Amino acid sequence: MLIHSINRRALLVALGAGALAGAARAQGAYPAKRITLIVPFAAGGSTDVIARVVARGLAAELKQQVVVENHAGAGGSLGTGLIVKAPPDGYTLGMGTASTLAINPAAYRNLPYDVTKDLAPISNIAAVPNIMSVHPSVPARDMKEFIALAKAQPGKLSYGSSGNGSVAHLMGEQFKLATGTDLVHVPYRGIGPAMSDAIGGQIQVLFDNLPTSLPQVQAGKLRALGVSGEARVAALPAVPTFAELGLADLNWMAFFGLVAPAGVPPAIVARLNAAVVKALAVPEVGHTLALQQARPVGNSPDAFRAEIARELVRMKRAVDAAHIRVGG
């Protein structure tokens, strides 16, 4: 009887050890199946292009398929909500941008999630400069002359954006606050229509991410007055940074990062972060990002979390000062 009892206990111990070993192997084998990467914007934009570049890099590093799904709507908050609600197992990831992680939380009413609590930052993938440009008919050759012109004609010059609460809208309001000027905001349904009217001279000023505006500036259809970044853009060496111009609040880069639902195990976060860093070191990935005027970053989860917190404070300051509120 005693021998039978001991054998039974031994069997239970062995089964328990086997289960623990199996769980350890399962955790160590991540990823064991396909990963979904949610892009909260439509296909074809900068976020989508960067996401697909990184998806290929992650797939190569993780030896597992990474499938991009676009879920556009509500300025990116619809897709972000899907990321937040996904199981925290590392098999649903998402793209987080300056819009979704800083501007929307500052400007949108009643977001059904808190980006600081409901998302796990993994890494800032890439940073893209922003740009301010004007129609060639504007009689100002540089930023100093433009500010003087705007102050002399309050409410007469207008700037376009891709909509209320967009990156371009926040940049315009930050510019007005920093320079004491009065520009009229004209929101459009996307940056395409705004760009068309800027080129046509219906609006005088355009704030934008660099990749969209660069071809128009290079073609002489728009005149660049300033760009963001630590250094001047190689493609526009004569255009000063906002920091050089004394406009530090505008000198932020649009970021494109990888996030996951809060609660993802730290080991999986670390695995994904290491995969992002390795993917960004591949020359082909760096070259493709450079075509988008994007600078690879690949920082740590903690560094990305701190970056998001800083940008959220910056955007809240502009949103509150300009009384921007989006949604009911």
Please tell me about this protein's structure.
- With 328 residues, the protein is of the alpha/beta class.
- Helix content is 47%, strand content 18%.
- The strands form two sheets. A six-stranded mixed sheet has the order 2-1-3-10-4-11. Strands 7-6-8-5-9 form a five-stranded mixed sheet.
- Helix 2 packs across helix 10, helix 4 (98-107) crosses helix 12 and helix 7 (167-179) crosses helix 12.
- The radius of gyration is 24 Å and the shape is globular.
- The termini are far apart.
- The relative contact order is 0.18.
Which features does this protein show?
328 residues; alpha/beta; 12 helices; globular
Largest sheet: 6 strands, mixed
Helix/strand/pairing class, anyone?
Answer: alpha/beta
In whole angstroms, the N-to-C terminal distance is 73 Å
- Neighbour order of strands in the largest sheet: 2-1-3-10-4-11
Share of helix, binned: 40-55%
Topology, pairings included?
Elements: H1 2-28, E1 35-39, H2 46-62, E2 66-70, H3 77-85, E3 92-97, H4 98-107, H5 115-118, E4 119-128, E5 130-134, H6 143-152, E6 158-161, H7 167-179, E7 184-187, H8 191-200, E8 205-209, H9 210-218, E9 223-227, E10 254-261, H10 266-280, H11 283-291, E11 295-296, H12 301-322
Parallel strand pairs: 1-2, 1-3, 6-7, 6-8
Antiparallel strand pairs: 3-10, 4-10, 4-11, 5-8, 5-9
Helix pairs in contact: 2-10, 4-12, 7-12
What's the quick description here?
This protein has 12 helices and 11 strands.
